[in-house]
Amino acid sequence: MDEVLTIGEIERKFDSEWVLIEDPDTDESLAIRSGTIRCHDKDRDEVYRRAVQIRAKRFAILYTGTMPADTAIAL
Questions:
Q1: For residue 40, is it within any domain?
Q2: Are 62 and 18 in contact (CB under 8 A)?
Q3: What is the pTM of this model?
Q4: Which residues of 8-22 are buried (b: 16+ CB within 10 A; e: fewer)?
Q5: What pLDDT does residue 1 have?
Q6: Does any domain span residue 69?
Q7: Structural domain range at position 42
Q8: pLDDT band at 69, cuts 50/70/90?
């Protein structure tokens, strides 16, 4: 999959999925505006495996769902 979508389209099309975005277009605060969708899956590990295979120079991984209340996020 090599489809360029806006962040709104990504969130609607891949609800509650992990999405690998190559060469994301970002604003000044680095929020994603759009990008090339390379893969998506409900399984986070599968998306990370694909990111390693692709070896993109610039990419983002985005979760489009709501994180459970007991989830910790490390940046």
A1: yes
A2: yes
A3: 0.84
A4: eebbeebeebbbbbb
A5: 65
A6: no
A7: 3-63
A8: confident
Residue type, 56: A
Type and span of the H or E element at 47 = helix 44-54
Tell whether 73 is covered by a domain.
no
pLDDT at 5: 95
Residue 70 lies in a domain: no
Output the DSSP codes for 1-44.
Answer: --EEEEHHHHHHHTTT-EEEEEEEEE-TT--EEEEEEEEEES-H
Give pLDDT tens digits for 4-54.
Answer: 899 999 999 999 999 999 999 999 999 999 999 999 999 999 999 999 999
As for how many domains the chain has, the answer is 1
Beta-sheet pairing, 32-41 with 18-26: antiparallel
3-class state of residue 69 by DSSP: coil
Count of Cβ atoms closer than 10 Å to residue 64 Cβ: 16
